[in-house]
Amino acid sequence: MERNKTVSLCMIVKNESRYLGKCLESIKDLVDEMIIVDTGSTDNTVEIARKYGANVYSYEWDFNFSNARNKSLEHATMDWILLMDGDDEFDRNDTEKFIQLVNTSQKDGHFFITQSYTGEKPGKDIVSNLNLRLLRNNGKYRFAGAIHEQITTSMGEMDYRNFTTEEIHIFHYGYLTDVVKEKEKRNRNISIIQEELKKDPYNGFHLFNLGNEYFALGDNEKALKYFEQVYKNIDFSIGYSSKLVIRRIMCMEELGRFEEALKAINEGLQAYPIFTDLEYLRGCIYYKLGRFSLAIDSMNRCIDMGRPPLQLEFLTGCGTYRPYEVLGELYYQLEDYHKAYHCFENVLVKNPSFHSPIYRIGKILKKMYGNERYVSYKLSKYFNLEYQPNLVLIANVLMNEGFYTSANGYLEKAYEMNPSDVNTIFLMAKNMAYRKQPDKAIDKIMSIGEKNLEVEMLKHVFVWSLVCRVQDIKYILNLLEQSGNTIIYKTCLQHYYVFLGNTDTVFSKQDPHEKILQISMQLLSELLKMQEFELFERQLNVLNYIESKNVLLQLGKLYYNHGFMNMAVKEILRSVKELDTIDREGIDILYKEFK
Predict the structure, then answer these.
(1) Which of 356, 369, 353, 432 is nearest to 399 (CA)?
(2) Contact 446, 429 (CB under 8 A)
(3) Are 550 and 514 in contact (CB under 8 A)?
(4) Cross-strand bridge partners of residue 58
(5) Is the terminal CB of the chain with fewer CB neighbours within 10 Å at N or C?
(6) 309-350 pLDDT per residue, tens
(7) What is the pLDDT of residue 216?
(8) Which of 389, 353, 383, 305 is nearest to 169 (CA)?
(9) Residue 315 DSSP one-character state
């Protein structure tokens, strides 16, 4: 479709070099000019913008997003203004919708769906919000508010009948964990909101946003305090109220206040009867509490309710793939593998880009059939085998189930298709190690070059070196130290000391011992996969240096995950008796053994 209306891209940026290229690439054919207001970048943001032909204007940051955004609007000369941030990406699948909208719309503005990735990397953890993205360039509108700016008009009251919501998607990368840390977004936002609250202490919108910032920082007590302050006077017709309802419930859940959360969900569903996300949260809480029948009922209700209206949706997929995922986990725990298999297949159908269920499907196929060739055949039917990442994915699933010969075939084909793919080389090296070839595994992974070795790879090389190349360990430890990941380095160093019989302690009381325990369990797991049982027994002495009540419980889970049921039960019972520690997963393991 040909676009017959012109579009200006307007954005404000500061140090956006990480994603700006991706952003501008995604919309370069949809706009006629790019207006970028830079508020003080010290990286190569400006160079990237100019590479795409953008008009870049400097603006001295005054802690007011609206002022900066209004400055960008002043320079726009086209029919429409597309509003984006430097860490956004336009969903190219919506190109035709966008062109038709700018060609035919009689409205003044349009809200699009912003899907924000959260967590460590883009994946299934996505929250949805509606944001004004397309604005008619008629001079009537400006932004107001120092942060979380809102559209206003100088022509009297805002008439939102001139604005509509469109199912056009923008992906947002700015709330990924490392991006937030890198930019110190939360502390910046809190400071601005607190200044706004000095002028208007009871402003519900500011209090709600302050709660959001503390929630994102993991300070759930403080977040809930601000949410409760706003909730006391809630008006369910106000735009952000549905988000307040769900964030408040999520805080309660995080704090373990499950009965309060269930009561709040009932209140929320009275106000928003078709808010599927709330029913989904109810099912998740029932699941955590072990009320499996009620959890199954809730998830089936989510499927019946379907996707909520765009104005309500917050957690993407609550009416489509997410309930099937939870149902799959429930039936898997109940050992109803046929139902679990069906549910996980539905997840793949509803969301083909979400691959986690294929790992569960691999486990179920192994339990149901056991035959390596058949499991490999069944997994291959889910994917296009001419697409290299699919081959790597299938190989990973097979390796998780100990089917190393079949995995090797997929990896060799993937390597032929892309011999420079580091992930393929890493998996090939792991496969070699698990097939009793650790020396070849080390050579394989080191072939990618020292500067390409990631910390995760170095952890594996460290373990493989304990098995066959002790003379290389100091070199590997030096690379780990240079990586800057102090905790992984210290954990590996303590394992090396134990290997040498050195009783010195590497860890201090201030170190995060739960994180150390997690890393140590990963190293021990690698030895079990390699069937290096004698070395594994020696390395267990590392646990004596870790100050955590969860040591025996985690050891029990490690044994369980590798099929050593008797050892798992023994360590979990020791955990209860000696350390007074157990959790839901530990109880489930004991139940399966003694039922």
Answers:
(1) 432
(2) no
(3) yes
(4) 38
(5) C
(6) 988 999 989 999 999 999 999 999 899 999 999 999 999 999
(7) 83
(8) 353
(9) B
Of 416, 426, 503, residue with least CA distance to 461: 426
Length of the chain, please? Answer: 595
Question: What's the pLDDT score for residue 106?
Answer: 95
- CA nearest neighbour of 481 among 493, 499, 471: 493
- Distances in Å between the Cα of 372 and the Cα atoms of 355, 384, 566 are 21, 20, 26
pLDDT tens, residue by residue, 485-535? 999 999 999 999 999 999 999 999 999 999 999 999 999 999 999 999 999
Could you report the per-residue pLDDT of 352-408, keeping only the tens digit for each?
Answer: 888 889 999 999 999 999 899 999 999 999 999 999 999 999 999 999 999 999 999
3-state secondary structure of 327: helix
Residue 469 CB-half CA count within 13 A: 20
Cα gap 23→307, rounded to integer Å: 28
Task: Please report, as a single letter, which amino acid is at residue 566.
Answer: N
Q: How many CB atoms lie within 10 A of CB 366?
A: 19
DSSP for 246-289?
HHHHHHHHHTT-HHHHHHHHHHHHHH-TT-HHHHHHHHHHHHHT
pLDDT at 267: 96
Q: pLDDT tens digit string along 422-442? A: 999 999 999 999 999 999 999
For residue 146, give Cα distances in angstroms to 87, 152, 188, 192, 211.
20, 13, 12, 7, 17
Residue closest to 400 by CA, chosen among 521, 525, 517: 525
Query: CB atoms < 10 A from the CB of 419, how many?
Result: 9
The alpha helices in 435-485, defined as continuous H runs, are 438-446, 455-468, 473-483
Residue closest to 356 by CA, chosen among 397, 315, 395: 397
What gap in Å lies between CA 130 and CA 115, rounded to an integer?
9
Give, for 459, the enclosing helix (H) or strand (E). helix 455-468
CB–CB of 504/512 below 8 Å? Answer: no
Angle at 321 between CA 316 and CA 323, to 5 degrees: 95
